[in-house]
Design goal:
Order of helices and strands: HHHEEH
Strand order of the largest sheet: 1-2
Largest sheet: 2 strands, antiparallel
Low-confidence stretches: none
Number of strands: 2
Strand content: 5-15%
Radius of gyration: 12 Å
């Protein structure tokens, strides 16, 4: 199976957030870490947030973080979500 870059980066973001579940990650920080445009990264985060995998907060101390425990996230469901565009 070959994944799109949209899905690949979405999975990377979720893994990053799962490594520090109590911390919010800014789009600027993750975009720099993944060498990805903030615009593209924002689209991925928006899709994950709409599906309830991620919550977002604006402003200082904000950012994206997991909306549920990592153990409750199923890889297949995330892949289907992100591959459907």
């Amino acid at each position: 199976m070959r994944l799109t870059s949209f899905t690949d980066y979405g999975l990377r973001m979720l893994m990053r957030m799962a490594g520090a579940p109590d911390r919010g990650f800014s789009t600027a920080e993750m975009a720099a870490d993944f060498n990805l445009s903030r615009h593209h990264l924002s689209k991925i985060i928006q899709k994950l947030a709409q599906a309830g995998y991620v919550t977002t907060r604006r402003g200082g101390g904000g950012g994206a973080m997991l909306a549920r425990p990592a153990s409750d996230i199923r890889l297949g469901q995330v892949i289907r979500l992100l591959e459907d565009g």
